[in-house]
Design goal:
disordered N terminus; flat; single chain; 5-stranded mixed beta sheet; 320 residues; alpha/beta; 11 strands; 39% helix
């Protein structure tokens, strides 16, 4: 019994160690598992921040290679330290082979956003990656400050978010482009416009017509504008792209809040089946659960008590 308990504890300890070991993205193009040279930033992270030693376990991942457990091997000297990850065991298959734990092809969901100040843009990118956005594109609008865009910093944020959220890939972060120059003519563009009369995003996602468009396209884009909103010229450009205008309710949301809210609704609506999140009145009736034996006994006692009280009242009336 003690040996069995010890074995169970060892298995649990190993599982926790595997889950808590540092997870590093090594690029989405590396297919064959082989020794991976870590970048200077990654070397600094594992050696100075995490203080890992030679042979300690880490995890490396990428869209083409999946995720692998690996052993850490240091090289160089203290001034110019290097490190390699030596893959040991495959933990998750590549995306093309179902490494995202989904047999169905996933909808490509892009996030298009006007450049924001660093703190707000960082939050937008971080949450968009965690929620599953496949591409991030900055959009030039009339009221946006393109000078605020820092692609390298935002891509570093995307990498960190992918490492933390257990994704197998890291979405690209594209430089600002005009609405008319954005690629993908067949992309279903959902433009979040404040106080529009075109209907709430959730209501439109439940419309079978929009669902058919999404299935035929396989790609949609959630678009949020700058703090000052879209200009009339921006809205005209969106109409020429056949964008669908959607509302997120009466409150005026900050751009990063609008992006997170809209992306959450799109992901939820496109990954649920048969609109199972509809209220019971709009879906099939929910059968009542069968009563338990204790409930049946309680109901029998209640009926007996009620019957006795009725008999006593009836007898009291006769005596009077």
């Amino acid at each position: 019994m003690m040996a069995l308990a010890f074995s169970f504890c060892l298995i649990c300890t190993t599982a926790v160690a595997l889950q808590s070991s540092p997870r590093l993205w090594v690029g989405d193009g590396m297919a064959a598992p082989s020794a991976v040279e870590l970048t200077a930033a990654q070397v600094n992270y594992v050696s100075r921040v995490m203080r890992l030693k030679e042979g300690d376990e880490i995890r490396v991942f990428g869209a083409a290679m999946g995720e692998w457990s690996a052993r850490l091997a240091y090289g160089g000297d203290r001034r110019s330290r290097t490190a390699r990850a030596l893959p040991v065991e495959e933990r998750r298959a590549p995306l093309a082979l179902g490494g995202d734990d989904s047999a169905a092809p996933r909808l490509e969901i892009e996030v298009w956003f006007a450049p924001l100040k660093k703190k707000r843009a960082t939050l937008l990118v971080e949450k968009a990656v965690e929620l599953g956005a496949t591409t991030l594109r900055a959009v030039k609008t009339q009221y946006a400050d393109v000078r605020a865009f820092n692609g390298a910093s935002l891509f570093a944020t995307a990498i960190e978010a992918a490492e933390q959220s257990e994704r197998l890939d890291v979405p690209d972060v594209h430089e600002p482009a005009a609405i008319a120059d954005l690629p993908g003519d067949n992309t279903v563009v959902l433009a979040c416009v404040e106080r529009t009369d075109d209907g709430h995003l959730l209501a439109q996602l439940l419309d079978p017509a929009l669902g058919d468009r999404l299935r035929q396209s396989g790609r949609c884009a959630v678009l949020v504008g700058p703090e000052g909103g879209f200009s009339d010229a921006d809205l005209d450009d969106l109409r020429r792209r056949n964008a669908t205008f959607v509302s997120l309710g009466d409150p005026i949301l900050r751009a990063e809040t609008a992006a997170i809210a809209a992306l959450t609704l799109v992901v939820a609506a496109t990954t649920c089946t048969s609109h199972s999140y509809l209220p019971p009145s709009a879906a099939s009736p929910v059968p009542s659960p069968s009563p338990s034996p204790s409930d049946m006994r309680e109901e029998e006692r209640r009926r007996h008590t009620t019957h006795t009280q009725e008999e006593e009242r009836r007898q009291h009336t006769v005596d009077d």
